[in-house]
Design a protein that fits this description.
Length: 177
């Protein structure tokens, strides 16, 4: 139902693990050899002898880090896929399906407003705003019995994954006299 965060989690873990290893190595080398530089003198001598190769390698690593960072950012902000549904020979757009479910949900007693989106393969996300004093169990039952059963029948599926978020409407202000 939710957008997959697997890529972001893996990338954050890899970057964190690398930063931890570099930090531990720097602290470890500094702890055991206070008078020596962090990099071994043999490595520094080799780097001074191959300045062009070191600069090219660091440049490639820098460009690779920027490209991976931009790809990571794009994956995090890209819009979700809104799938259209194929019913026999008719294509029902995600927008039309969401509008139909929203109209049904707004007819439930106690619901002040509804927002619906179709995601995944398809699945629904409902955000219902309830009026004060509404019986939540009755709304829940009516939502399942009328709205979602009708959507399942229309899509000809037995299971329609749905995430429902319930909010309370703001109470009208009362003036004190």
């Amino acid at each position: 139902m939710n957008r997959s965060n697997r890529t972001e989690r893996v990338m954050a873990f890899v970057v964190g693990a690398l930063a931890l290893l570099v930090g531990c190595a720097a602290v470890g080398l500094h702890r055991f050899a206070v008078d020596r530089p962090v990099l071994d003198p043999v490595v520094l001598d080799w780097a001074r002898g191959h300045v062009v190769a070191v600069r090219v390698g660091l440049g490639v690593l820098g460009v690779l880090a920027v490209v991976l960072g931009l790809r990571w950012a794009w994956c995090a902000i890209r819009p979700e896929r809104r799938p259209d549904v194929l019913l026999d020979d008719v294509v029902v757009t995600a927008k039309a399906l969401a509008a139909a479910v929203r109209a049904d949900a707004e007819q439930v007693d106690g619901v002040a407003g509804a927002k619906v989106s179709v995601v995944g393969t398809p699945a629904l996300r409902l955000r219902l705003t309830l009026r004060h004093g509404t019986d939540v169990t009755r709304v829940w039952r009516e939502l399942d019995d009328r709205v979602l059963s009708r959507a399942r029948a229309a899509l000809d599926v037995e299971v329609l994954p749905t995430a429902v978020r319930l909010d309370l409407a703001k109470r009208p202000r009362q003036r004190v006299r």
